[in-house]
What we know:
Structural class: mainly alpha
Amino acid sequence: MKEESNYFQETKQKINQYIQQRVLLLRLQAADKASRVASTVITMIIIAILLLFMLIFASITAGYWLTDLTGSLTKGFGIVALFYLIIFLFVIFFLRKTLRNFFVDRFIKLIYKKD
Length: 115
C-alpha cells in the first residue's frame, strides 16, 4: 500500500513539474513573439518617419520647381497639393481593401513566423 501512495506522489510531482515547465515555455515563447513584433513595429515606424521627411522635402522641392515653371508660388504648390489629393483619392477608392489585407497578412505572418 505504501508503494502505491509513493507512486502516486511521485506521479503528482512529475505532473506538477511538467505543468510548470510547460507554463515557463509558453511564457518564453510569448516573450519572444512580443519582442519580435515590437522590434519590427519600431523599425517600421523609424523607416516611415524617415520616408515622411524625404517626402516632405521632395514636395517642397517640387513646389518650388513648379513655381519656377508656372511663375506663381500658389500654382506651384497647388499642383503638388492636387497631386497628393489625387493619390489620396485613388488609395481610398481603389486600394483600401488591398492595402488592409496586405498589412493584416504581414502582421499575421510576423506573429506566426517560425525560425
